[in-house]
Design a protein that fits this description.
There is one protein chain. The chain has 10 helices and 13 strands. It is of the alpha/beta class. Helix 1 crosses helix 2.
Length: about 350
């Protein structure tokens, strides 16, 4: 069964990706309002943004979980910000208290590392550390008296209490992971539960799924098969023409806020550079993948957009599903308005049985 999640930006500053909401940013009421709206409009939960200078993501997720009933927070966390045993304990506690609703997105990319004391700047070593982090967290969730002396972390005779809900049956909070470099893909192929992709065209996603599947076999993956997810912006309106007018107006506003088009890579991210390179292939790829936002500062999931009527965007997302994508994290701004509009118009189409 496919998973459909929304996005909560989790920032104290207004204006995130053009959102025109001016009040409430950084407050519990605003974040809970978005989470409750996600529940009402059919979403399974939401990815909660992370980064130094934002409210602590795990704390926000815990507070939201206490005020909702079905909402699943996908909490973004960083090795280097967390020690694995500390994180494993906090996550297991929240997972159990929330009735097994916690998801985890492990982020390795560069942040303001020195601000919170993370001195590991070498990208290759950062992914080695993430691999060790994931392995140790999994062990702590399922084993007694864990002793491990690794390159980055050490624990001795560590037994976790409580464990995640259903740990005795092998369950734990689902581990999402992103990254497009060769080092990142090796971590995903061996240690993640879900590899997240940004909004690349179908041919790029198909090639990456094939490579990761082969890597899983080559590297001797010991867990259930790796699953795949898509994190992308969607601009959904009542008609195709209305959606494209809205998307083009948004890009014009982005262009007016920036003197020159965005060029080059984004913090050395291989995945971000792949998105920026798509502009050379055209403004619209596949049926409705819009690349123009990448020229004007649309980073990450905001670099490419799926644009169209609900039927257009649903058809595009089903093509990704045909490739093997089963997890979808969507968003558009203003977040409060679009969580309702996109949920109401799009999710029913995506969940409806397809004729043979």
């Amino acid at each position: 069964m496919n998973e459909f999640l929304w996005y909560i930006p989790n920032t104290v500053e207004p204006g995130h990706r053009g959102d025109d909401t001016t009040d409430g940013w950084g407050t519990l009421d605003y974040s809970v309002d978005l989470a409750e709206a996600a529940e009402r409009h059919g979403w399974g939960g939401a990815l909660i943004g992370t980064g130094w200078g934002r409210p602590d993501t795990f704390t926000v997720a815990t507070a939201i979980a206490a005020r909702t009933t079905t909402f699943r927070p996908l909490v973004a966390v960083r090795p280097g910000y967390w020690q694995p045993a500390h994180f494993a304990s906090a996550a297991a506690t929240l997972d159990r208290l929330s009735g097994g609703r916690l998801y985890v997105n492990v982020v390795t990319g560069v942040d303001d590392l020195a601000a919170y004391g993370d001195g590991e700047f070498d990208p290759a070593r950062r992914y080695d550390r993430t691999r060790e982090f994931l392995r140790l967290v999994r062990r702590l969730w399922h084993e007694d008296a864990v002793t491990s002396t690794g390159e980055f972390y050490r624990v001795e005779n560590a037994t976790l209490r409580p464990r995640p809900l259903g740990a005795e049956d092998g369950r734990h909070p689902r581990l999402y992971f992103g990254g497009a470099s060769s080092a990142a893909e090796e971590v995903a192929a061996t240690e993640a539960d879900v590899q997240l992709f940004w909004g690349e065209p179908l041919d790029g996603i198909a090639e990456r799924i094939d490579r990761l599947t082969q890597l899983s076999a080559t590297l001797g993956r010991e867990h259930p098969p790796l699953e795949f997810g898509l994190r992308i912006t969607t601009v959904v309106r009542d008609t195709t023409d209305e959606a494209w007018r809205a998307a083009e107006a948004k890009v014009e506003q982005m262009a007016n806020r920036r003197d020159e088009p965005l060029r080059g890579s984004h913090n050395g991210s291989v995945g971000q550079q792949r998105l920026l390179d798509l502009v050379a292939r055209g403004d619209v790829l596949d049926t409705c993948l819009y690349t123009a936002p990448g020229r004007y500062g649309g980073g990450g999931a905001g670099t490419t957009w799926l644009v169209g009527s609900a039927a257009d965007v649903a058809a595009a997302l089903r093509r990704y599903a045909d490739l093997g994508i089963t997890h979808f994290i969507l968003s558009d701004t203003p977040y409060r308005q679009e969580v309702a509009r996109t949920g109401d118009r799009l999710l029913g189409l995506l969940r409806a049985p397809q004729e043979a």
